[in-house]
Design goal:
It is a single chain. The protein has helices at about 20-35, 40-50, 60-70, 85, 120-135, 150-165, 190-195, 195-210, 215-220, 225-235, 240-250, and strands spanning about 5, 10, 55-60, 75-80, 95-100. The chain has about 250 residues and is of the alpha/beta class. It has one domain. The chain has a 5-stranded mixed beta sheet. Strand 1 and strand 2 (about 10) form a beta hairpin. Helix 1 packs across helix 5, helix 2 packs parallel to helix 5 and helix 5 crosses helix 6. The structure holds zinc ion.
Length: about 250
């Protein structure tokens, strides 16, 4: 069996689990999807997924754990040949599979640090999926002060999830993709975050790649919303000066 959420572009499939576990998996996941669907940031991501096709969510299994570790999930696996596809449930070709189990992130050693709540991890993977289905997905490496993110895809997933965390009332934002540590206080105000040249470049890139959903994310009522700040600056033709940023850094040392 599987559960279909056509209005979100999502299919949950707990196949491979025993009967009771499969029902529990699908029940827990449908609750997390319901929670996400009440916020502007995830709604924008669902909108993009629907625009390109759909995403199937399946359990994080022992094979996944062997390959990527116990505390993990993935969102950029190519879509498999789902029964729902064969039945014409999703008619567009863009699809991805998320490997994720809410239980991984509910208790125990994986469940600590900013951005590690079950809803935050799922949204992180759905950002990967949304960009994968839309063929924007490109793991361009990030270096220097941005090396903690690993690559641009992780940057975008962490950025969008941080805006969601803030929209949901959270204040513990994730620093990067190297673990689950706190974003430094000096970067936690959206204006300060966006003044950093690499952040400005990447937020600008995200907004130009996603002219439909970036403005939706900008509407999120969140204290930390660099996408919103980007559009505010753009409306008054303001661009931060990268040289000034370097000077400011030297002065605050
Ligand atoms: Zn990721």
């Amino acid at each position: 069996m599987s559960m279909e959420f056509p209005h979100l572009g999502i299919v949950i499939d707990g196949d491979g689990l025993n009967n009771v576990d499969q029902r529990l998996y699908e029940f827990k996941l449908s609750n997390i999807l319901l929670l996400l669907s009440t916020f502007a940031v995830p709604r924008a991501i669902f909108r993009k997924i629907i625009a390109h096709g759909g995403v199937e969510i399946v359990p994080w299994n022992t094979q996944d754990a062997k390959q990527f570790g116990a505390c993990n999930a993935t969102g950029n696996q190519p879509g498999e040949d789902w029964p729902e596809m064969r039945a014409g449930f999703f008619t567009l070709p863009g699809r991805a599979t998320v490997h994720y189990s809410p239980d991984t992130w509910m208790t125990g050693s994986c469940a600590s640090g900013p951005g590690s709540k079950p809803d935050e991890i799922l949204l992180h993977e759905l950002v990967h999926s949304a960009r994968f289905t839309g063929r924007d997905f490109n793991q361009k490496p990030l270096t220097g002060p941005m090396s903690g993110y690993g690559d641009e895809e992780e940057y975008f997933a962490v950025l969008v999830t941080n805006i969601y965390t803030s929209e949901a009332g959270g204040t513990n934002l994730r620093a990067d993709h190297a673990g689950f540590s706190n974003l430094s206080a000096t970067l936690s105000k959206p204006e300060d975050f966006l003044r950093m040249p690499e952040n400005y470049r990447l937020v600008k890139k995200f907004c130009s790649q996603h002219p439909n959903i970036a403005p939706m994310i900008a509407t999120a009522n969140a204290a930390f919303n660099p996408v919103k700040t980007f559009y505010e600056w753009k409306s008054r033709n303001f661009e931060p000066d990268p040289v000034q940023w370097v000077i400011d850094q030297a002065l605050t040392r």
